[in-house]
Design brief:
It contains ten helices and two strands; from the N terminus they run ββαααααααααα. By secondary structure, the protein is mostly helical. It has three domains: about 45 residues, no CATH class; about 35 residues; about 70 residues, no CATH class. Strands 1-2 form a two-stranded antiparallel ribbon. α6 crosses α7. The protein is elongated.
């Protein structure tokens, strides 16, 4: 039975069973797999194709995680050269140092470290971060003297001396004659 390809428009000949099946299911007929594949892709933008590929890759990695891990490990063992990597790291070091000095990296690193430290507290991570922020705010508003007073470190040595004197009574010095009597005679 003759039909017109839905993609390229050329007239082709196929068995009546193909024609009847496609008409019953509401499908279009193509001259071959190539035209069918090209027709499927023709109305997609590049962004759609990229999104579909990303979705497919994500699903593939999820399903084949163990196999991919083994393959990556084998590749690493096969190709890794410590001396070459050391030389490459030394070559890139100045660029890395400059990158680490950038203000946006410092902000990001600061936030990352906060979250990393807070993760140790599990469900209470947010409470930990809020407590740290609250302490920082309190210390930012208090003067150095107020902080020392609250911590008990203001006039620390003087306070210790006073406590020591209060705990044990001060012994009176003995009169001079008593001190001299205990000494052996000179001469």
């Amino acid at each position: 039975m003759k039909f017109k390809c839905a993609h390229c428009g050329r007239t082709r000949d196929k068995a009546a069973s193909h024609f009847n099946r496609s008409r019953a299911l509401g499908l279009r007929l193509f001259c071959g797999r190539k035209c069918f594949g090209l027709d499927r892709r023709k109305n997609k933008t590049k962004a759609q194709k990229i999104a579909e590929k990303r979705k497919y890759d994500k699903e593939y990695r999820r399903k084949n995680r163990a196999t991919l891990k083994v393959k990556k490990r084998a590749y690493h063992v096969r190709t890794y050269d410590p001396a070459k990597q050391r030389a490459y790291n030394q070559q890139r070091k100045p660029l890395h140092v400059e990158y680490c000095r950038r203000p946006e990296y410092k902000r990001w690193k600061s936030e990352y470290d906060r979250q990393h430290r807070a993760a140790e507290f599990g469900a209470f991570a947010e409470a930990y971060r809020l407590t740290i922020d609250l302490n920082r705010e309190i210390k930012g508003r208090a003067t150095n003297e107020q902080i020392q007073w609250a911590n008990g470190t203001l006039n620390k040595s003087q306070t210790r001396r006073r406590q020591t004197n209060e705990e044990r009574p001060r012994s009176r010095p003995r009169p001079r004659e008593h001190r001299d009597r205990n000494k052996a005679p000179v001469g």
